[in-house]
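WARN no homologs supplied; continuing
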Amino acid sequence: MNIQLDSKKIKEACGLVSFRKGDTFFRSKKVVFSRYEPEYCEADVMAAEDFHVTIQGDGKGGYHADCSCPRLASVKTDCQHIAAVLLAILDHQKNGTAPLMDVEGAGHESLAEGLLTIFEKEPSRSSGEQLHFENRQPAEACFTCMPISLADGSTMLGMEASIAMHPVRDIRKFLKDVKERSQSAVSPFFTYEPAGHYFRNEDDAVLQELMRIIEDEQAHKEGQTLEADASILLIPPTSWRRLLSLLTAAPKVQLKNGGHVYEGISVPEEQLPLTFRFELDENKGGRLVVKGMGKILILQAYQSVLYRGMIYQLENDDCKRLADLKGMLAASGTDRIPIQKDQVGFMLEKVVPGLKKLGEVHLPGGIKTQLIQSPLTAKLYLDRLKNRLLASLEFQYDNVVFNPLEEKEFHTDFLLIRDEEKERTILEVMEESSFARTDSGYYLQNEELEYEFLYRQLPKLQTMVKVYATTAIRNRIFRESIHPRISVKVKKERTNWLEFKFAMDGIPEHEVRGLLASLEEKRKYYRLRDGALLSLESREFDEIRRFLNEIPAQDEDLEEGLNVPMVPGLRLMGSLEEGEVFSFEESFRNFIEEVRTPGSRQFAVPESLEPVLRDYQKQGYQWLKTLAGYGFGGILADDMGLGKTLQAIAYILSELPAIRRTRQPALIVCPSSLTYNWQSEFERFAPEIKSIVMDGSKAEREKMLAEAGGLDVLIVSYPLLRKDISSYEKQPFSTVFFDEAQAFKNPVTQTARTVKKIQAGNRFALTGTPIENSLEELWSIFHVIFPELFQGLREFSFLDRKTISRRTSLFLLRRLKSDVLSELPEKTEYLESAELLPDQKKLYAAYLAKLRHDTLKHLDKDTLRKNKIRILAGLTRLRQICCHPALFVDGYKGSSAKYEQLLQIIKESRLSGRRVLIFSQFTKMLDMIGRELARQGIGFFYLDGQTPSEERVNLCGRFNSGEHDFFLISLKAGGTGLNLTGADTVILYDLWWNPAVENQAADRAYRMGQRHNVQVIKLLARGTIEEKMNELQDKKRNLIEEVIEPGGKSAGMLTEDDIREILNV
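OK structure emitted
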């Protein structure tokens, strides 16, 4: 287009934030033009939803831009979508690149290719793969394979490559550049550019394998190179088979062999082009004449034979024999081997079978009539006498029959060509079966070995031999179909017990008890009373065996069934699935439905809260009531901002008559910062409940606790509960709610030990983050609220994540905002990165080098634990430098890239009329930001760990009412318990190790009651520890999703590997 553009003009027109977002859209190929003319263009920007942009030139180098996205009237700058289109136009003007057009035909074809790429089974490539909706050019690759003679006389295979018809001069450097996505000068006339070229999948697979070969060389400090020719990469024999399969699939491959270049690589299945001709002189012996050896090249290490443009792959033994034969002929200088008269028979019997695998064998007509070349018929005879299993073998070729265990010569006028390989295989299987040998047969006198033979080795042998078994043997093998089943139901007489009944179709009832005992003893089989051996190694029996191993100790007769209390019974069911073995009867299905689907068993919602509670909150209330009815504990793990507090209040209000009748109040345990928030919520939603915050002096708190019988709810902080636990453990409570239950995620802390001492009829935990770092945290919470669900921590550590997820599914209720609040506005997350300033970068590099040096000394199992605090302190220093070096460097006069970036975002936010929460872990950083806001005359609120609980509630109310537009908050102190829906922008100035903490901070604004779209901006220093922290956060998200929403990989606490990765040591 004929408009005057540069980056500075686009930044001024759109603002820094929109410019950066637009640049991301542009670089991600999200801009697609539908019209592109000198004075006018139209384009679509494919963001979360598509927005249409028009640019109209004014004929003087200026323009007018319009976008279909919704914008605030107070925003005077152009949006990020216009920025993306302007950057695409600028790129066309500067570099001559064609704008990405939405054109019929070609455009639709690229869409189809993109769709195919999405659903291909191959994972995405790392070396310049084709992108969806690709507008780069394919870099046509040609790979040339050839034998290379080395100085030591050996021969290896080598590989050359050409890209876009230009030979690669240095293949190792080229592969390194491709791996690192760097440009690479292939030749003086062609340069590979990752931004402009891609490799087709088949070519890319070959390149990946060549890179792996170089990596393996470096890892093992081995591998040979050709000093004189950098264009050739030698292929180690260990990589050849894998590479060969990739080469046969690549579109352009050549084979250099014998001075010729052959297009493509063929791996034929037929015999080698060799002939072996036996010539016999009457009564004198003869000779073996070999033809074709001079045409082939044998590469024994590769198990390969090259012939013209073909590569034959042989078995290791066959390739060795061929190489030895060629060497022997070469040493003798002839193509024939003399055979003495007395060697003829032996030669024909022993050599001919092996030669047939290498080429075509020709025998004189007279000899053919003397040869027996029929296939081997092997027979195995089985019998059982006097508790012994007896076996004998018989091999037959035509009418020649013999026992392979008897060493005797054949007196015959014929020559027998035996299948020695098959004979050897059969004998090896018999030897593996632990048989004892006699002169002519085998025997077993051990029942377990007999079972192993009949059920493991015999099926192998049946593919090679004919089996003749007596009735005694056939009766030893149990042949009927067995369908073991266990039914589960809730006992009628005792509804808090489960009953398990065993059924074994095909097994007499009087055998069931013995069979179950064998399963408990982990035996592989069970011997029925008629002597048959029943295999217990099926998947169904494995499930029953696992079930029996987990049931509590009992003295009941399993044959009659098994009665188990409800809680340990459910623990069992959490490890099992309904299917071929386990069947759930109607009573158990109904019970599961009640717990799994809140509302199936209706409890009356307190009348005053009926119009207040949303549908999903009513379901949460029903879930709490159902669990309480069965005496179970549970974790209400709803997403932050969905009203867990209100659901707990509804439950307590429904229990109010019982609370007052028994004079056993409910107890709320929460962080100090939330105590008055809880009281405020009780006064708002249930003023009839008498609640009190347990605060004040020791004497005042003791007095309040002594009068607890006259109250409905006590609210106490975790710190004060620890101090006063000796008084609280004497007081029975109707129900206890542990808010922000991650407070006792570490089972060895004093808090965890304290909360276990509370006596309560029902126990519930409220937390949006039941797992932050490791599965041990989930165990710790359940160990307090529902200790019967899991056994000790050691046993818990052996459970797989699928079992844990299934077992907790009934007792952990989690709903996400996206699931239940369809009216909730959009939340958009942005990652804004900034390059460290020069002085800042020097300081960072110096501290990083020192920390790496110190860390290397401590990274072993013995010293890591002792020095972890020191290492973490060093990592904190690096994070502070990323924020602002002045946080700990006295006299630092420079600035900080992230700080400058923040000030620019603050400026743009004020122009846009946005209301902003700024979180940082470092209160000194917040002080610095606050001083700058005050200098500019910008009003703000401030909250950290020192802010009293009552003041927190007051500050939130004032902010939500619109008093100031900025709120500076300490990440850990303000990440929970605050309702700040008056904000529409959340800035996370520095990253935290755990994503759950950041999510909690963002959800102070993005929660029920929010009416505006919320944007969350994470600031990150590029090329620093913060990038590594962001990757670590992704790993930890997987752990949370895997157990609460199954499927992922554990991250755990900060490990030695994490530290190594973060510091690149």
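Residues 598-820 form a domain with the Rossmann fold fold (CATH 3.40.50.10810).
OK
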